[in-house]
Specification:
This protein is α+β, with helices and mostly antiparallel strands and 141 residues long. The protein has a domain of 79 residues. Helix content is 57%, strand content 19%. It is built from 3 helices and 4 strands; from the N terminus they run ββββααα. β3 and β4 form a beta hairpin. It is elongated. The N and C termini lie far apart (58 Å).
Protein backbone atom coordinates (compact mmCIF):
# COMPACT_ATOMS: atom_id res chain seq x y z
CA UNK A 1 0.00 0.00 0.00
CA UNK A 2 2.78 2.44 0.89
CA UNK A 3 4.14 2.43 -2.66
CA UNK A 4 0.75 3.44 -4.05
CA UNK A 5 0.40 6.63 -2.04
CA UNK A 6 1.15 10.03 -3.55
CA UNK A 7 3.93 12.18 -2.15
CA UNK A 8 1.51 15.03 -1.43
CA UNK A 9 -2.04 15.17 -0.10
CA UNK A 10 -4.34 18.17 -0.57
CA UNK A 11 -7.13 18.56 1.97
CA UNK A 12 -9.77 20.65 0.24
CA UNK A 13 -11.11 23.65 2.12
CA UNK A 14 -12.89 26.86 1.24
CA UNK A 15 -10.96 28.64 -1.51
CA UNK A 16 -8.09 26.16 -1.56
CA UNK A 17 -6.43 23.42 0.42
CA UNK A 18 -4.08 22.47 3.20
CA UNK A 19 -1.06 20.73 1.68
CA UNK A 20 0.55 17.75 3.38
CA UNK A 21 3.67 15.77 2.58
CA UNK A 22 2.93 12.05 2.91
CA UNK A 23 5.60 9.96 4.62
CA UNK A 24 5.54 6.18 4.82
CA UNK A 25 9.28 5.70 5.23
CA UNK A 26 9.41 5.48 9.00
CA UNK A 27 10.13 2.72 11.49
CA UNK A 28 6.52 1.96 12.27
CA UNK A 29 5.60 1.97 8.55
CA UNK A 30 2.70 4.22 9.41
CA UNK A 31 1.34 6.88 7.17
CA UNK A 32 2.39 10.26 8.48
CA UNK A 33 1.19 13.50 6.99
CA UNK A 34 3.05 16.70 7.74
CA UNK A 35 1.34 19.95 6.78
CA UNK A 36 3.69 22.01 4.67
CA UNK A 37 1.48 24.80 3.30
CA UNK A 38 -1.93 26.35 2.79
CA UNK A 39 -3.01 27.42 -0.69
CA UNK A 40 -5.71 29.78 -1.90
CA UNK A 41 -6.94 29.12 -5.44
CA UNK A 42 -8.84 32.43 -5.57
CA UNK A 43 -5.73 34.60 -5.32
CA UNK A 44 -2.97 32.08 -6.08
CA UNK A 45 -1.36 32.51 -2.68
CA UNK A 46 0.85 29.73 -1.29
CA UNK A 47 1.67 30.11 2.41
CA UNK A 48 4.30 27.78 3.86
CA UNK A 49 3.33 26.28 7.22
CA UNK A 50 5.15 27.98 10.08
CA UNK A 51 8.73 28.90 9.19
CA UNK A 52 9.03 26.11 6.63
CA UNK A 53 10.78 26.73 3.30
CA UNK A 54 9.09 25.02 0.37
CA UNK A 55 11.34 23.24 -2.10
CA UNK A 56 11.10 23.81 -5.84
CA UNK A 57 9.54 20.32 -6.07
CA UNK A 58 6.95 21.31 -3.45
CA UNK A 59 6.08 24.45 -5.38
CA UNK A 60 5.82 22.57 -8.70
CA UNK A 61 3.41 20.04 -7.18
CA UNK A 62 1.34 22.73 -5.48
CA UNK A 63 1.14 24.87 -8.62
CA UNK A 64 0.17 21.85 -10.73
CA UNK A 65 -2.55 20.94 -8.22
CA UNK A 66 -3.82 24.53 -8.20
CA UNK A 67 -4.07 24.62 -12.00
CA UNK A 68 -5.96 21.33 -12.04
CA UNK A 69 -8.25 22.46 -9.20
CA UNK A 70 -9.08 25.76 -10.94
CA UNK A 71 -9.98 23.85 -14.11
CA UNK A 72 -12.12 21.41 -12.11
CA UNK A 73 -13.99 24.22 -10.37
CA UNK A 74 -14.58 26.05 -13.67
CA UNK A 75 -15.97 22.87 -15.26
CA UNK A 76 -18.24 22.38 -12.26
CA UNK A 77 -19.54 25.94 -12.60
CA UNK A 78 -20.56 25.33 -16.21
CA UNK A 79 -22.07 21.95 -15.34
CA UNK A 80 -24.08 23.55 -12.52
CA UNK A 81 -25.47 26.14 -14.94
CA UNK A 82 -26.38 23.51 -17.52
CA UNK A 83 -28.16 21.60 -14.75
CA UNK A 84 -30.02 24.82 -13.96
CA UNK A 85 -31.18 25.00 -17.57
CA UNK A 86 -32.48 21.44 -17.23
CA UNK A 87 -34.18 22.35 -13.98
CA UNK A 88 -35.81 25.40 -15.58
CA UNK A 89 -37.21 23.16 -18.29
CA UNK A 90 -38.52 20.73 -15.67
CA UNK A 91 -40.01 23.68 -13.79
CA UNK A 92 -41.78 24.84 -16.94
CA UNK A 93 -43.24 21.38 -17.41
CA UNK A 94 -44.33 21.27 -13.76
CA UNK A 95 -46.03 24.69 -14.06
CA UNK A 96 -47.81 23.63 -17.23
CA UNK A 97 -48.87 20.14 -16.19
CA UNK A 98 -48.89 19.63 -12.43
CA UNK A 99 -48.83 22.83 -10.38
CA UNK A 100 -51.86 23.72 -8.34
CA UNK A 101 -53.16 27.27 -8.00
CA UNK A 102 -51.79 27.44 -4.45
CA UNK A 103 -48.34 26.21 -5.55
CA UNK A 104 -48.25 28.74 -8.38
CA UNK A 105 -49.25 31.50 -5.99
CA UNK A 106 -46.35 30.50 -3.74
CA UNK A 107 -43.61 30.44 -6.41
CA UNK A 108 -44.64 32.78 -9.23
CA UNK A 109 -43.29 36.10 -7.93
CA UNK A 110 -39.96 34.62 -6.82
CA UNK A 111 -39.51 32.86 -10.16
CA UNK A 112 -40.47 35.91 -12.21
CA UNK A 113 -38.09 38.19 -10.31
CA UNK A 114 -35.20 35.73 -10.51
CA UNK A 115 -35.79 35.12 -14.23
CA UNK A 116 -36.10 38.87 -14.92
CA UNK A 117 -32.84 39.53 -13.06
CA UNK A 118 -31.07 36.72 -14.93
CA UNK A 119 -32.42 37.87 -18.29
CA UNK A 120 -31.30 41.46 -17.63
CA UNK A 121 -27.76 40.39 -16.80
CA UNK A 122 -27.56 37.94 -19.72
CA UNK A 123 -28.75 40.58 -22.22
CA UNK A 124 -26.28 43.15 -20.87
CA UNK A 125 -23.37 40.67 -21.01
CA UNK A 126 -24.34 39.58 -24.54
CA UNK A 127 -24.42 43.23 -25.66
CA UNK A 128 -20.98 43.81 -24.12
CA UNK A 129 -19.56 40.79 -25.96
CA UNK A 130 -21.10 41.97 -29.24
CA UNK A 131 -19.67 45.48 -28.78
CA UNK A 132 -16.20 44.02 -28.18
CA UNK A 133 -16.50 41.80 -31.25
CA UNK A 134 -17.35 44.78 -33.46
CA UNK A 135 -19.69 45.15 -36.45
CA UNK A 136 -18.51 41.97 -38.22
CA UNK A 137 -20.17 39.91 -35.46
CA UNK A 138 -23.59 41.30 -36.46
CA UNK A 139 -23.35 39.93 -39.99
CA UNK A 140 -22.61 36.36 -38.88
CA UNK A 141 -25.98 35.81 -37.17
Amino acid sequence: MAGDLPEYYFRIRDNGAAVFRVDTENRQRRIEMEQIAVVNVKNGEIKPQGDRKLTPADLREIEAWMAKRIATLAARDVDDILRTVDHLNLTTQWVQAKATEAQLEEVTDALLLAMHDLRTVLVRKKAERMMKAGPEADTET
